[in-house]
Amino acid sequence: MKRILIIEDEKKIAEVVQSYLVREGYEVNITHNGKKGFGFMKKSLTI
């Protein structure tokens, strides 16, 4: 399954985008600022 990380400070916008992407078959994670998003991405990357 393809994964997408949404970094969006507006909770409602992030939830709307997430709902569309989930319907299209994506696994979606949300963070609300860039620093947390970068940390999440570093932990999630598999090489």
Automatic annotation (TrEMBL):
Residues 3-47 form the Response regulatory domain. Signal peptide: none annotated. It comes from the Bacteria. InterPro entries: CheY-like_superfamily, Sig_transdc_resp-reg_receiver. This is Response regulatory domain-containing protein.
